[in-house]
Amino acid sequence: MRGQVGVSISLPRAQGVKRGRFARHFEGWQLGALAVGVALPLALLVVPHRAEPRDLPSPRVDPRALADASAADRARAQALGPELEREVREGGSALFDLRALGSAIRAYGRVDAAGDAEALFRERRKLAEAVSAARGLGAERLLALRAFQAGLFAAEVAAWERTHTETDELRALGGGFASVARRAGWIAEGGRLVLDDDVRRLLFERRWMEITGLRGAPYEPTPDETRAYWAFLLAHPVVLDADPAAYCREADAWRLRRLDDVARADPAFPLALARGVLLARLGRPLESIEALRAHLARSPDGPWALRARNLLAGQLAAAAP
């Protein structure tokens, strides 16, 4: 029939040759070989094989939800910017407390970047007073200020990437961000940061929440923002000034300490499997075996099951006397 393609396998057979008794034992060997050829790849998919602990699970992030949260922040910032400019130009006072809070955050950032503990204590008190005064304007105004400053911070970070020069404005908005980025290894070749735009915004907003003390709804990040934050840190942990020879071990130890936070952000995150991977990397096979068995007991046929079995086989071999 036209439009259909049939597939057949022609098995050659000798013509005009009489087969003896010995040859009859091998009659149909071609079909047997084909069956083995089909079965072997399937067996490789289901039979555990020793595996190295290379891949670490990551939290699930919905890109559309993350984009929606980013768009909401941009809208807040774009609405606030002209209002601030108009008030400064015309000498108004309706947003005075909001502008004072923005100035207090900048002053705190400069002192934070300088590492002056005594001055930082004084600026923190001033910042707390500014937050208290600005609360009267409502949460939406405070969220708009945070979004507006996040946009300024992103622009300063982009300028730092281009010029390799840390400006006073970057220190005012991000405190010691540049120092942390250098010491944590977040700068790739050519001076580009390994942080994408969403992560830059999230890091700024988390620091903003921390220094202002504005927590809880509506200041907390969305679930997908939190998962994106932890996905980045699992890939690029905050390990400062580590010796290159010890970096991998210190990074995995840092990841292991943060896994409970990741699991709280993403209830579907395979926590026990992640523990098993990291404990294996850290040379703790008995603990890794326990974690992997716990994962398989909870999810024997889940999407990570084969990986867990393969890793378990490797750890059982490593733990063997």
Poorly predicted tracts of residues: 1-47
Radius of gyration, in Å, reads: 29 Å
What is the number of E strands?
0
* Fraction of residues in β-strands: under 5%
- The helix/strand class is mainly alpha
Mean of the pLDDT scores?
A: 86
Number of domains: 2
In which range does the helix fraction lie?
A: 55-70%
The backbone outline, from C-alpha atoms, is: elongated
Please provide the ordered H/E string of secondary-structure elements.
Answer: HHHHHHHHHHHHHH
Instruction: Describe the sheet with the most strands.
Output: none
Could you give the distance between the termini?
64 Å
Number of helices: 14
Give a quick rundown of the structure.
The chain is mainly alpha-helical and 321 residues long. It folds into 2 domains: 174 residues, no CATH class; 77 residues, Serine Threonine Protein Phosphatase 5, Tetratricopeptide repeat.
